[in-house]
Amino acid sequence: MTLGVEPYSDLRTIKRAYARLLKDVHPEERPAEFMALREAYERASVMSAREAARTGPREPEPGPAPAEQLEAAAASPDVHEPDPALLEALRVQREQEQEEADARQRFNLRMQALADAFIEVLDDPQRRADPAIWQALLSTPELSNLDIRLRHGANLLPAVIDLLEAPEQSLLPPGVLVLLDDSFHWTQDQNINWPVSEESMQRLCLLVGAAHRSIASAPPRTGWGWFFSSMFRPDGRLSRTEFFTGMTLLLPAAFLVAFAMAILLPQQLRDAVIIVIWLVAVYAVVIALIKRIRDSGTNIYIALVLGIAFPVMNLLYIFANSRDPVSTPGNPRARFVDPYVMAAHSLFRSGFRYGIQQRVRRFFLSMKPSLAWSLILLPVAVAGLLTLATLLGAKFF
User: Do 310 and 386 belong together in one domain?
Assistant: First the structure.
């Protein structure tokens, strides 16, 4: 026997069908049919409960509850004695309604606890930087339902925007932002009305794109290829940090090579080779100076004429600031800046400021070990040789 309802119907529909059929099936007169009806009711209730656990309890439809209908039927003046079948249906109906209310309350409590957990992680600077914690929250079984997931995304999004706009707060790592965006579809579905302004959503879309670029880009590595390109190729620009680093490597290296040639080569070749070495060093210094002039935005020809006429002017070009922001294509500082950090400060905060301490730190952290050791050992070797020359007499050298 069946209740005549669709599979996975809500409990209210199941109870109405059960109450309607129970009027015609008296438990004493037709016990077999009553048991079959009862089993059909219990099966449908279990299937409905499973569906509710998967998608969340449904809100009851407006209208009188079946329990009220059964009470009215039992209290009808046309009925002289209470019908046992109606009384049984009334008891079952009340139990099921109480179970449904309890299930709805438990579900709402779980959803509120999950929403609070998202906000707690976002407010903790250390925990919000850990993708594993976010992944554990996003793996909650209830979030497999799209509607529930979007409701949590709508609840979390304003807090994320507030965090991005707070200059005293640390940023979400780009991997975490991409994970949240992929889970809640903030920037992927333009048909959803999120509880933030349209301008904030546009800025968030740009920031998510920068986060993807940050994840895909390899960290900068500075090695000997950078040194030869910076010192000997005339195109491009140099930052102050790169200029002084290149000079710190170039001049001691030229001195040591000239010293080695003076010892190893015969007299007739020694002077010519040393002159060539120093001419190469002068060429590299001029190229580096031209790149610094280009970085400052000064006309190269005028700057070179003034530099020759007034050598002190070259110091002004060397210490001059860049002519354009870090984000401008061609700026040598751009490769040492995370595009996500730059976009976050430019879009949500008072603008990107890239201080000299940050530039120097990121530049030296990008150095390969061979270049870093050379930067230390070459000046030390030159200082040692000069000290030895002073002790033993310059004529030895």
Answer: yes
